[in-house]
């Protein structure tokens, strides 16, 4: 008698899951609004700030490196990445659609992988586009003062691509928080507090402890890759910082995957 190899139910493969997650992500208005807000805030604020500070930078009156300003708007644009990342999972829990998702694709690891791929891909592209538009707009004012930065200048291309990597990582961090907390407000609040509040408060701790915790905070470690030069020279080097950030995201995603596999939908 010939053994019959069981086959996976139709529609449970990763490719189909990715397609389904892509359709779900872009079928809601919040996705388009979030991406549009990222581009508008990131590129718009970078251009505005460069226009305002270009004369002082050229005169050497700020004491800050020019490269620290060409992706400045991402400081605020990252909020939209966090919101979109959290909504990727919390919206389904809020509406109960997660049950239909798991009925169509019972393997929860496949569902999580598909969500992560679609979200990170979307935010990577949006982050790069935002950074490039901000660089083009802001650099016009910097170049008018004779201090513009080209793609060939040290760290510029890395920062433009790194902006996409950082936005993707932030989205995954928020998605993991959303899976653990199952609440949009809670997930967004926790991640934003970690990036903006805790990342700055640890600077107040005395000695080497405060210095190293500052370097290792997700927002500080991850964002370094998105700027040619940092306002804070004490932060980790760009790729070292991003490696730390990626490890932190991976740990939280791992915890979220365990919770997702064990808890009821």
Automatic annotation (TrEMBL):
<feature type="transmembrane region" description="Helical">
    <location>
        <begin position="33"/>
        <end position="54"/>
    </location>
</feature>
<feature type="transmembrane region" description="Helical">
    <location>
        <begin position="188"/>
        <end position="209"/>
    </location>
</feature>
<keyword id="KW-1133">Transmembrane helix</keyword>
<keyword id="KW-0812">Transmembrane</keyword>
<dbReference type="GO" id="GO:0140359">
    <property type="term" value="F:ABC-type transporter activity"/>
</dbReference>
<dbReference type="GO" id="GO:0005886">
    <property type="term" value="C:plasma membrane"/>
</dbReference>
<protein>
    <submittedName>
        <fullName>ABC-2 type transport system permease protein</fullName>
    </submittedName>
</protein>
<feature type="transmembrane region" description="Helical">
    <location>
        <begin position="239"/>
        <end position="261"/>
    </location>
</feature>
<feature type="transmembrane region" description="Helical">
    <location>
        <begin position="66"/>
        <end position="91"/>
    </location>
</feature>
<feature type="transmembrane region" description="Helical">
    <location>
        <begin position="156"/>
        <end position="181"/>
    </location>
</feature>
<keyword id="KW-0472">Membrane</keyword>
<feature type="transmembrane region" description="Helical">
    <location>
        <begin position="112"/>
        <end position="136"/>
    </location>
</feature>
């Amino acid at each position: 008698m010939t053994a019959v190899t069981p086959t996976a139910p139709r529609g449970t493969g990763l490719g189909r899951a990715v397609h389904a997650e892509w359709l779900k992500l872009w079928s809601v208005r919040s996705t388009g609004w979030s991406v549009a807000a990222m581009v508008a805030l990131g590129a718009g604020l970078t251009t505005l700030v460069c226009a305002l500070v270009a004369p002082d930078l050229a005169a050497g009156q700020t004491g800050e490196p020019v490269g620290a300003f060409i992706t400045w708007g991402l400081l605020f644009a990252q909020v939209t990445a966090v919101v979109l990342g959290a909504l990727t999972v919390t919206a389904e829990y809020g509406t109960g659609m997660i049950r239909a998702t798991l009925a169509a694709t019972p393997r929860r690891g496949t569902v999580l992988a598909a969500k992560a791929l679609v979200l990170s891909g979307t935010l990577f592209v949006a982050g790069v586009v935002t950074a490039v538009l901000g660089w083009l707009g802001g650099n016009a004012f910097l170049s008018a003062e004779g201090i513009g930065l080209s793609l060939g200048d040290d760290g510029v291309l890395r920062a433009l691509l790194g902006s996409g990597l950082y936005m993707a990582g932030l989205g995954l961090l928020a998605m993991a928080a959303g899976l653990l907390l199952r609440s949009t407000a809670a997930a967004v609040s926790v991640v934003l507090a970690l990036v903006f509040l805790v990342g700055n408060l640890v600077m107040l701790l005395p000695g080497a402890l405060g210095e190293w915790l500052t370097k290792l905070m997700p927002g500080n470690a991850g964002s370094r890759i998105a700027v040619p030069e940092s306002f804070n020279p004490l932060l980790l080097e760009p790729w070292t910082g991003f490696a730390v950030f990626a490890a932190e995201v991976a740990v939280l995603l791992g915890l979220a995957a365990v919770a997702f596999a064990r808890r009821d939908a």
